[in-house]
Amino acid sequence: MVGVGYTLMCEQTGPKDLVDQAIRAERAGFDYLVISDHYYPWLAEQGHSPYAWAVLGAVAHATSRVRLMTYITCPIRRYHPAVVAQKAATIGVMSDGRFTLSLGAGENLNEHVVGAWPHVHQRHEMLEEALQIIRPLLDGDNLSYSGNHFEVPEAYLWDRPDTPVPIAVAASGPHSVELATEYADALVCDVADPAVVRMYDQRGGAGKPRYGQATICYGPDTDDCVKTAHEQWRWAALNWTVKAELPGPESFVSASEAVRPEDIAQVVPCGPDLETHVAAVRKYVDAGFSDVAMLQVGVESQPMFLDWAEHELLPRLREL
């Protein structure tokens, strides 16, 4: 049976409301919660971007059952890897072992606030070094590390959960899949790509969790949903190689000017039809994913979505 998650979208919701959504999502029956880790929203229309780790601490205290996960933290620029390990271990303790740390190479949008954005090849080197730091620290090692990009003269985590925090790595191709199998306990992929899952299995990931994310815009009126999705999510029509390089919301506005409402409706299922949204999850299940987080576009619709998910969506997804 597929694990179904709920996405706490920092880019479209303030911190107190995110905690309230987490409590409601747990009550609705979601298996886990993922939280975006941004410094900026994608578009100014989204209007928020609180510090995800402060929200996670509150959510860990306010919930008792659901698993928690970052989606996705970049440990190469805005955060030093040793600090990421400390934050992850602390949330692991506060959540009584319910936390998974999901890591990726990040986007210019969030990381340039502390300095120049590295070239993609350098970013991949930095991510591997970060994993070489974070993994042993979470395992309880006293670490000294000297790399091309990071220095850790000496580090040890004094507060850790009884079981080390699991790590998931975002992957889309051979190199990132290799990192996921060598250093992590799970795979993350935003695209329902069976080729990535097969590659992960062949390189040693068989039997480990594979996390995806299905973006939808549920609501009683399809046209209203399409309007909301276009207003707040039109950047999703861009290629990831473009999205990783754009420096701010204004750039995403410019880059997505030609995206029409009908274009984004092809990317984001919109409206009230249950089976349309189930199909968005089924794509991941058929591709071999074990867990899929639902991302509901639009802050005003979250209470309605959570009620609908509890009574209709989740019971239907349990059948997959």
Description:
This protein has 320 residues and is α/β, with parallel strands linked by helices. The protein has a single domain (3-224, 269-317), classed as Luciferase-like domain (TIM Barrel), CATH 3.20.20.30. Helices cover 45% and strands 16% of the residues. It is built from 13 helices and eleven strands. An eight-stranded parallel barrel has the order 1-2-3-4-7-8-9-11, surrounded by eight helices. The chain has a two-stranded antiparallel ribbon with strand order 5-6. The protein is globular.
List keywords for this structure.
two-stranded antiparallel sheet; 45% helix; globular; alpha/beta; TIM Barrel; 320 residues; 8-stranded parallel barrel
